[in-house]
Amino acid sequence: MASRAAHAQAISGAADAALSDAKREEARQHFEKGIALFEEESWDAALVEFLRSRELFATRAATKDAALCLRKLNRFDEALDLFQALLREFPSLPAEDRALAESSIKELTARVGGIDIQSAEPGASIVIDGRERGVAPTPPLRVNVGTHLLRLSREGFVPFETQVKVAGAQTVTVQAKLAPLTRGGRLKVSEQSGKAAEVLVDNVWVGKAPWEGSLPAGSHMVVLRAPEGFGTQPVAAPVKLNDVTTLTLTLEELSAKLRIEPAPAGSDVALDGIAIGRGVWEGPVRAGPHRIEVASEGFLPASREVTLARSQREVVALSLERDPTSAAFRQQNPPHVVFEATGAFLLAPSLGGSVLNGCQGGCSHDWAIGALAMIHGGYQLSSGLSFWLQGGYLSVGQSVQDRSVKLLPRGLSDFDAMAGDKLRLSGALLGASVGLSRGRAVRLRVRLAAGAFIGSARDERQARGTTPPGHDVPGVPVDFSETESPSAQYLFVAPEVRVGLRLSQHWELSAGIGAWILLGLSDVTWQDTNPRSYPDTLGQILFNSGGSQQSIVGRSIVLAAPELALKWDL
Fold it and tell me: Which of 83, 105, 464, 473 has a C-alpha 20 to 30 A away from that of 545?
């Protein structure tokens, strides 16, 4: 008898060893697939392979690489769990891996927080962002920083659902008391062929098929899950008050996986026309085409078509845009008074005019540079459309060197000379504008302004040359400077586009680029109003030889304007 028992034990040990070797080999194959996908930066697919490898036979490498994939996917809470498991399960880690795990834990700790669920009914299922997290009571649950959808449910009680905002290293306490279900209906779920399958109602496991239970009246979502990749896609289950709803479902192969990440976090999600809940949803689906729809009050609905291959895992992130026509949007974004201060650097190749256009040969000039400052006051509607009045000051200058000119002494012939000019256009800006903004934390702004510029064009002119000698008069050196500042009036058009960062509830800092297009109402010319007096042999010297007047700046000027602005919402 003892010999037979020992022989049976030996056979059992050999079978266990063979099974262990088979699991090790399968784990190795999944790990190698994960490595190839990791090198392709296919983080989702690599994670699936590493986790399967770890499930079959946990190794240091599979655990570390799965944690790295989770960090790449911004699933920081799960990554932190795995890095801690790496230190806990493999105490003899190489120094390099230990340093990686410890530094990652320190980094990830600041990116996660916790949800502490209190007053919940014992045994209530907990789902956070579509992911089952156990049953109440439970220690605080680790989650990523951000907004999360928390749902608790238990048969015989009204489900509890709320949004929770969690900051880094913060644990938020939620009082999640479930109210008894006093009015509702019943739901019966069975599998057509009688195969074993788990029943999930509203993303929560409730039992095995056939199943029957009480639910609040309204629409619910049901799926079946069975081994070896079989199950059902989401099915709508309308439960009526004091009535029984019966569902008979048929298992099918669900060879693909889909994860839907809506923004905002509490959006309603539908898959192939079936409402599957609020917030993040993840589950197996059949290979082939699918339609995803996301909606939330105060936002424009969005949809996307995806086609999944066998064994494919797809993550679909859908961000909704605000609906400016909705009552919810108007309530959150009421019309309000706004003020803004803007400063800009001005740049242009030329201010135009005869002075610069006549710069040839050895003549040279720099770029026109300057600045402007503006104060805006306006009214912004809920839609983001805004109307402004604005005023400010503009100043831009440019220099010209070694410009060929002709000087004209009164009563004598003109003669060649060289001149240099320091030009400056400056004055006040008055106008109005209309703008449009989109976004919340980061905002895109466009604006179009129009108005008038009232100022002057200053020309500080330095001339030097020698008069040609006459029969009895030697050449006379001429070196003098004159300044004129004729008035300048322009109409302006100024388009701009900016990106703004909200600093607080009332303050926003933005940066962007604009263009100032100035259109002159008349020529701005050198008048020779202060001719230079020389000895009687020369008399007064003029710059306008032949009576032609030189324009100091052009009739049209275009200035580029990189700008910064600080906005205050009243």
Answer: 473
| Cα–Cα distance, 553 to 351 (Å, whole number) | 6
- The DSSP call for residue 505 is S
- Would you give the DSSP letter of residue 487? E
Distance CA 311, CA 314 (A): 10
Give me the DSSP letters along 244-268.
EEEEEE--EE--EEEEEEEESTT-E
DSSP at 40 = T
Residue with tokens 């000019």: 421
Containing H/E element for 340? strand 336-348
Helix (H) or strand (E) holding 502: strand 487-502
Distance CA 325, CA 542 (A): 66
What's the CA gap between 192 and 202, in Å, rounded? 21
354 CA to centre of own chain:
48
**Highest mean pLDDT out of 36-45, 128-137, 491-500:** 491-500
The length of the chain in residues reads: 570
Residue % of the chain over a pLDDT of 70 = 93
CA distance 483 to 99: 72
Q: Which residues does residue 172 pair with via DSSP β-bridges, in sequence order?
A: 115
Element (H, E) at 307: strand 302-308
Phi, psi (rounded to 5 degrees) for 197 = -160, 145
> Rounded distance, CA 277 to CA 310, Å?
25
CA 226-129-329 angle, to 5 degrees, is 135
What average pLDDT does range 442-460 have in this prediction? 94
Look over the chain and give the mean of its residue pLDDT values, rounded to a whole number. 88
Mean pLDDT of 146-171: 90
Which helix (H) or strand (E) covers residue 20, if one does?
A: helix 2-39
Number of other CB atoms surrounding residue 6 within 10 Å: 10
What is the C-alpha separation between 97 and 90, in angstroms, rounded?
10
Query: Predicted confidence band at 7 (pLDDT cuts at 50, 70, 90)?
Result: very low
Structure tokens at 424: 């400056």
Predicted TM-score (pTM) of this structure: 0.59
Q: State the Cα–Cα distance between residues 316 and 497, nearest whole angstrom.
A: 31
Residue 313 token pair: 């895992």
| Mean pLDDT, residues 536-562 | 79
| pLDDT of amino acid 168 | 87
CA pair distance 294, 298, nearest whole angstrom: 12
- Is the model's pLDDT at 194 over the cut of 70? yes
DSSP 76-141: HHHHHHHHHHHHHH-TT--HHHHHHHHHHHHHHHTTEEEEEEESPPTT-EEEETTEEEEESS-SPE
**Is the pLDDT score of 33 beyond 70?**
yes
Residue 553 bridge partners (DSSP): 524
Helix H, strand E, coil C: the string for 190-240 is EECCCCCCEEEECCEEEEECCEEEEECCEEEEEEEEECCCEECCCEEEEEC
Instruction: Note the pLDDT of residue 357.
Output: 86
Residues 6+ apart with CB under 8 A from 9: none
Cα separation, 430 vs 388, in Å, equals: 11
Which distant-in-sequence residues (6+ apart) come within 8 Å of 279 by Cβ? 129, 130, 148, 149, 262, 265, 266, 267, 269
